[in-house]
C-alpha cells in the first residue's frame, strides 16, 4: 500500500511495513487504523449506553421554569448530541455498505449496526471510502468518550504539517479539564516540527490558509464540509453526478468545479 488513507491516523510510518494483503482485498489504511476501527465499533454500543447516565445531569446554569419553584427538565445536551451522532454515523455507513456491497444489517439498533460494520470492516477498509470511515468512527467514539469520561486526554489531527514540503500530520493533545488550547502541537513525521501553546494561534492561521487555498481538487472530507453532508453520501453523489476524479497516491480527489455545479 502507498500510505494510510485515514485522517485519524496518528502515525502511519511505523505501521506501513506491517500492512498486509487480506483475503478481501488490499487495505487502504494501515494495520493500526484497521484494528482501531474494529475496536471502536466494538466499543461504541457500550459508550452509547453509558451516555444514558449522563443525559440527566443538570448543567450549572439550568434555567428555572417561570412561575414554579422547581427547575425544568435538566437535559445534558452534549450527551444527547453525542448519542445522535453515534446513531447517524452508524446508520449512514451501514446504508453505504448496503448500497455498495449488497448486504444489510439484521437490526437497526446501535448494537446491530456496529456489529454489521465490524463484520464488513475488511471490505469497507479496502474501499476508497475506507479512510474516511475509519476517521469518522474514531471521531465519533472520541466525542462520546468526552461525555462519559470528561477527564480523558484527547488527541486530534489538526491538519497537514505547514513546514515546507513536509508530508506529516499535526497532532494536538488536550486535557478536557484543562485549558481548551493544547499545550503543544507536534508533527507525527518530523519531531523538530513542534509548536508550543503561545504559537498555537499562528499555527491555526497557517493551517486555515492552506485549507482555503482554492485548490481545483477537493478531498471527500472537504466535499462533505462544503455540501454539509455525510462522508458516505459524498461517494454516492460522486457516482450519481459523475464527478471527475483523480488520485493522489491512493487517495481520491474530486473536481471542485463539478462539486460546486452539483450544489449550486
Blueprint (SSEs and pairs):
Blueprint: H1 13-16, H2 31-55, H3 77-101, H4 110-119, H5 121-124, H6 130-148, E1 153-160, E2 169-175, E3 184-187, E4 194-196, H7 200-211, E5 217-218, H8 220-227, H9 231-241, E6 245-248, E7 251-255, H10 256-263
Antiparallel strand pairs: 1-2, 2-3, 3-4, 5-7, 6-7
Walk me through the structure.
The structure is a single chain. With 264 residues, the chain is of the alpha+beta class. It has three domains: 1-150, no CATH class; 151-213; 217-263. It is 48% helix and 12% strand. The strands form two sheets. It has a four-stranded antiparallel beta sheet with strand order 1-2-3-4. A three-stranded antiparallel beta sheet has the order 5-7-6. The protein is globular and about 50 Å long.
Q: Percent range for helical residues?
A: 40-55%
Structural class: alpha+beta
What is the alpha-carbon Rg in Å?
A: 20 Å
Question: Could you say which overall geometry the principal axes of the C-alpha atoms support?
Answer: globular
Estimate nothing, just give the exact number of structural domains. Answer: 3
Instruction: Report low-confidence residues grouped into runs of 5 or more.
Output: 10-24, 58-72
The overall pLDDT, averaged over residues, is 76
Number of helices: 10
H/E topology pattern: HHHHHHEEEEHEHHEEH
Q: Mind describing the biggest β-sheet?
A: 4 strands, antiparallel
How are the strands ordered across the major sheet?
A: 1-2-3-4
Strand content: 5-15%
Tally the beta strands.
7
Report how far the terminal alpha carbons are from each other.
37 Å
Amino acid at each position: 500500500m502507498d500510505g494510510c488513507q485515514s485522517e485519524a491516523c496518528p502515525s502511519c510510518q511505523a505501521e506501513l511495513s506491517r500492512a498486509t494483503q487480506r483475503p478481501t482485498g488490499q487495505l487502504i489504511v494501515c494495520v493500526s487504523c484497521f484494528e482501531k476501527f474494529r475496536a471502536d465499533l466494538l466499543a461504541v454500543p457500550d459508550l452509547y449506553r453509558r451516555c444514558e447516565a449522563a443525559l440527566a445531569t443538570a448543567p450549572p446554569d439550568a434555567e428555572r421554569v417561570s412561575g414554579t419553584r422547581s427547575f425544568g427538565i435538566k437535559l445534558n445536551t452534549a450527551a444527547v448530541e453525542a448519542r445522535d451522532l453515534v446513531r447517524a454515523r452508524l446508520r449512514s455507513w451501514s446504508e453505504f455498505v448496503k448500497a455498495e456491497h449488497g448486504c444489510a444489517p439484521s437490526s437497526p439498533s446501535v448494537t446491530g449496526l456496529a456489529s454489521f460494520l465490524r463484520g464488513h470492516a475488511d471490505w469497507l477498509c479496502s474501499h476508497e471510502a475506507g479512510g474516511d470511515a475509519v476517521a469518522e468512527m474514531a471521531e465519533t467514539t472520541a466525542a462520546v468518550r468526552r461525555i462519559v469520561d470528561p477527564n480523558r486526554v484527547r488527541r486530534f489531527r489538526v491538519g497537514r504539517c505547514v513546514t515546507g514540503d513536509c508530508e506529516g500530520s499535526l497532532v494536538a493533545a488536550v486535557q478536557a479539564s484543562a485549558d481548551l488550547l493544547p499545550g503543544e502541537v507536534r508533527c507525527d513525521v518530523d519531531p523538530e516540527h513542534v509548536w508550543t501553546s503561545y504559537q498555537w494561534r499562528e499555527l491555526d492561521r497557517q493551517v486555515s490558509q492552506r485549507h482555503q487555498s482554492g485548490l481545483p481538487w477537493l478531498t471527500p472530507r472537504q466535499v462533505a464540509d462544503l455540501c454539509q453532508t455525510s462522508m458516505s453520501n459524498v461517494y454516492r453523489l460522486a457516482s450519481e453526478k459523475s464527478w471527475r476524479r483523480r488520485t493522489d497516491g491512493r487517495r481520491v480527489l474530486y473536481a471542485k468545479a463539478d462539486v460546486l455545479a452539483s450544489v449550486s
